[in-house]
Specification:
The chain is α/β, with parallel strands linked by helices. It is built from 11 helices and 15 strands.
Length: 256
Amino acid sequence: MIKKILAILAITLFAASAHAASKLDAIKKNGELRVGTTGDWDPMSMKDPATNKYKGFDIDVMSELAKDLGVKVKFVPAEWKTIVAGITADRYDISTSVTKTPSRAKVAGFTATYYKYATVPIVLKKNLKKFSTWDSLNKNGVIIATTLGTSQEEKAKEFFPKSKLQSVEAPARDFQEVLAGRADGNITSSTEANKLVIKYPQLAIVPDGGKNPAFLAMMVPKGDKVWNDYVSNWIQDKQSSGFFKKLLAKYNLKSL
């Protein structure tokens, strides 16, 4: 009986300790939600260089989360190559949406998913006859651009083993290498691709379909179950209330 009581007490103390160490308490105490974001992913998170202010789908999501928490939101500049390190180094409490990947999941926690997209290749429109399929881009002599630290950089190795992969470092972006003629193609989310081909009419999406359905979620510190559960439950509540549906319509987006 005594052993059972001690075991229950130990579990209770452990749970209390985990709660005390949670980001949720620190955020409420400090009155501020620190959000890491790259500001270069249209339409999820975009930074206006003239004002240094952020806008986009994820920016609206984080602003709403801070509002419901009763705290201010602070957007912390991040880069794709270090966005995971920002979580582990406590530079921010949460990130705007990133793709769930096994390598990221080793060191960071992921909230519930709230958006799903496909991966598609982009090439110059004038080169569509030459590069009309995924396979046509997977050849010796073909250059595929990637942005350092992105999930697409990892996937490019899998999709294009025969091609030459050329990584660029933010604030440069992979699609800019295609525009400049330094690369034959790049891969990105169907979400960004649809925006890019409107903004840059000289670009086109390779027409033979998307691959690798991927899930977006926010990153939080690994092991902080209290904070993760809070945000995940908040996401589910907002989905039920129609918040995300309205936001998708605002940005003319469709989740797979």
